Amino acid sequence: MKYRTLDSDLTVSAVGLGCMGMSHAYGAPANKKEMTELLAQAVGMGYTFFDTAEVYGTPDNPHDNEELVGAALKPYRDKIVLATKFGIHFDMTSTAVNKPLVPDSRPEVIRASVDASLKRLGTDHIDLYYQHRLDPKVPIEEVAGVMADLILEGKITHWGLSEATEETIRRAHAVCPVTAIQNRYSMMARWYESLFPVLEELHIGYVAFSPLANGFLSGKYDKTSKFEAGTDYRSVMPQFQPDSIDQNRALLELLHRLAAEKNATPAQISLAWMLCKKPYIVPIPGTRKLNRLQENAGAADIVLSAAEVALIDEALAHMEMSHVFGGSRIVKE
């Protein structure tokens, strides 16, 4: 595994592990013993960056993920970077498969959240603490002020923003320096590339969630793929609809061609593309499988030249592509 630095001093594995699916994903409950073993295996492979949140859990235990991750990684706490998030809860009264988010970043709620997360994670500090989503009712300067206090108190060492815009980043950073943003980013979700200049100006890292477009860019799905309606999130994600396979055919063909040229997999090419674009981008794909954990780690060893990345970008900018979960269709000219 290779490593890179977010801001000026937070060093993490070049590929991190998004842990959300280890407690729930696509309607199927996870085996805690197997997930605990998988997390230990990740550390053995060189993964040092693990991402969770206070709201990742199950209906029976809404905070299950932090408990699982904290317990599994406790023996390796001095070797890893733990990231978690505050500031939202889900509207469980909704009948939607993907429950609506309800933001809440009032200072008293943040303080209660950090104390609860520290307890569940079994640690005395959080390495990277994100505001999960902007709260329109609480000025970001007020949130940043709380983060500054928590850093002084030793409860967190760095903080970040998720799904942030340039204005929010600048306003927050002016109060308490931001270490990283965690925004959606993949070959199918490139709208935040406009943030690259400000991130470089302020020395802020970009942690990319859903870097494989919820698994679509692994190239493992086709029109025959079935997802259980009502429980499997992919059943309502636009990129997995049968018509989308045709719309994304050029993208899939590009991935398979590059994978063959580089003796890699489509998923590895998808991750290597963003790793080779900028030295401060760290993707955090999730998985429950050892072979995928190994596959994702291998992406850090694939080298794409600047010219190759530019050619990929040019191809992506002009090919037909379906909508992707979490955003709108990329404009094609």
Task: Give structural notes.
- Residues 15-316 form the NADP-dependent oxidoreductase domain.
- Keywords: Oxidoreductase.
- The two termini are 38 Å apart.
- The protein is of the alpha/beta class.
- Strands 3-6-7-10-11-12-13-14 form an eight-stranded parallel sheet. Strands 1-2 form a two-stranded antiparallel sheet. The chain has a two-stranded antiparallel sheet with strand order 4-5.
- The chain has helices spanning 32-45, 64-73, 107-121, 140-153, 166-175, 196-202, 242-247, 249-261, 266-277, 290-298, 306-318; strands spanning 3-6, 10-13, 17-18, 24-25, 28-29, 49-51, 81-86, 88-90, 101-103, 128-131, 159-162, 180-184, 205-209, 281-283.
- The model is unreliable at 328-333 (pLDDT under 50).
- Helix 1 (32-45) packs across helix 2 (64-73) and helix 1 packs parallel to helix 10.
- Strand 10, helix 4 (140-153) and strand 11 form a beta-alpha-beta unit.
